[in-house]
Structures are given as structure tokens and as C-alpha cells.
Amino acid sequence: MKWIGHIPPVRAAALVLLAAVGTYANSLPNGFAFDDDTIIRGHPVVTERRVADALRSSYWPEVAVGAGLYRPVTLASYALEWKLWDGRSVGFHTVNVITHAAVSGLVFLLILGLSSVLPALVGGMLFAVHPVHSEAVANVVGGQSCTQHSLSWEPAWRFARVGCHPGRGGFACSWWGPSTLWVSDRREWRPPCQRFS
To answer: 191 φ, ψ to 5°?
Structure first.
């Protein structure tokens, strides 16, 4: 096991990326399934490429007025992908696999920032090949989970690097949203949800 400690971080990251792509490459020839049919193929905002209408539309195409989910960025991205891939499912699946590989790489980097290459490799590989990600990667509409994970990586990395210590970087925050914003009072550092409780 001594040789594992000598794997350069770049090679270890490449192994994680290859594992992520290799695990879910079999989803590329899949068609649209389950919710994909309704949300992508059955949604006029997507199929008619009306990106601007995503701001006014429900995520589910057939809902009662005032009901349903509001996901304009996701819906607009589906409309753009529909145009880019000309409605072919292989393009959507390719985006999901690449996004999952990128998130797996980010998990590797997060662990590498906290530890060494071996734990980062193990953690990145477990994340890359874990079956819990099957629905998020293999179904087109599940890909939004991969995107959300990629956006939450930066605040987790920043917190891991700076932590809650005023002397080690001061105001540790991220612009991704209030759930990741860390604030300080004169006594201690804690997240906003605990600050006001």
C-alpha cells in the first residue's frame, strides 16, 4: 500500500473522473424516461425553445394555477439543451454524466484540501461510483441534482479551509446564498440560523 501514497494528485483526480464517467457511460444511449417525458418532451417551454418563458412557467407543464414547482433556471437550461441537441436524449445524458464527473472531481478536491491524496482518492471514488447517484445521473431531470451539488461545493470548500475561526481568514462566506453565509458577532462564529435562535 506504500505506492498509493505516491500517486500524484492529478493522476488520482483523473482516476476519480474516469470512474465517474465509466460508471454512468451506459446511460448515454438511454432515451427519455419517467418524468423526462413530461418535464422535457411534454413541456412547450422546452420543446419550443422559449427560454424567456421559463421565468413565468411551472416546472410541471400541466398544473393548476398557483400550484407546482418553480424552477426557471432548470427549465431554461432544458430549453437550451433541447435546442443544442435538437431534442436528442443522448445530449442530455452526456451533460448529466459530465456534470457528475465534475462534481466527483470537486469532492476529491474538497477532501484533498482537508487531508492527503489517499483519503481524497477513496472519498472521490466512493462518491463517483455510489449507486445512490443512479437516478440523478441516468434520468435527465435528475441532472439538476448534479448541478446543485456543483454549486454547493464552493461554500463547503471555503468553510473547510477557513472554518469558524476569526483569526484564520475572518469572514468566511460565499455569495451562493444565505444558507452558506457565515457571520460573526463579538462572542463566537456561527451560522445565521443559530445566530438568531
So the answer is: -70, 155
